[in-house]
Design a protein that fits this description.
The chain is mainly alpha-helical and 208 residues long. It has eight helices and four strands; from the N terminus they run E-E-H-H-H-H-H-H-E-E-H-H. The longest helix has 25 residues, at 69-93.
Length: 208
């Protein structure tokens, strides 16, 4: 993670103020949106495929019972990946519609949604490096449904390899994980996340 990046519209190097910032200015974002925000059939098809795969994975997780730990951890890892991929696609390619979906929530619910996704990004990043799912998820007794497994509280991660801005972002994700995921069930968190992504997708479809 670096402290600077190139604007996707004009190419100038800029320092992002938000984690997902792609443009150096409001003007560049508006110009990019005029050119691309409508989306092409291929873009819509890719998003549809990602959302279908996400829904199928979460449905499988919520139905699963009696699996061994290895299978349970595998489906949870896949669910984290699917949900964060769809969220990232919507933020990246449909930012205005994503913002409209958030704006439909009251302030408290909007904060919960944003922190839930930040917490899931923390899980994704941890699983992508050194952490095993068992470091983050507490299974229940044999035979219990996977959706009833819970997210564990975890110690603050070592972030020495990141830039100052990267550490700030990852610590924000970590705190969101502790506040919104830790102690709650896997099924509850994924159900909340998918409900919002389904609504954001409906906003995209209604405007394309």
């Amino acid at each position: 993670m670096t402290d600077t990046r190139n604007c996707e519209q004009c190419g100038v190097l800029f320092t992002p103020r938000r984690e997902h910032a792609r443009f150096c200015s409001v003007r560049c974002r508006a110009r990019w949106n005029r050119r691309y925000a409508g989306g092409t059939p291929a873009d819509t098809g890719a998003l549809d495929w990602s959302i279908t795969a996400m829904r199928e994975t979460i449905e499988r997780l919520c139905r699963a019972g009696g699996w061994d730990r290895a299978d349970g951890f595998a489906v949870i890892s896949e669910a984290v990946w699917r949900v964060t991929i769809v969220d990232a696609d919507l933020v990246r390619y449909h930012p205005e519609n994503y913002s409209r979906a958030l704006a439909r929530q009251d302030a408290g619910q909007r904060r919960i949604i944003e922190e839930t996704f930040a917490g899931l990004r923390f899980v994704r990043n941890q699983m992508g490096y050194d952490a095993h799912p068992a470091d983050l998820v507490q299974p229940l007794a044999s035979g219990a449904g996977i959706a009833a497994w819970t997210w564990k509280p975890v110690p603050e991660p070592a972030l020495g390899a990141l830039t100052a801005r990267g550490r700030s972002w990852e610590l924000t994700r970590y705190q969101a994980y502790q506040d919104r995921l830790a102690g709650r069930t896997v099924g509850e968190i994924f159900t909340q996340a998918v409900a919002f992504l389904n609504m954001a997708d409906d906003v995209v479809l209604s405007r394309t």
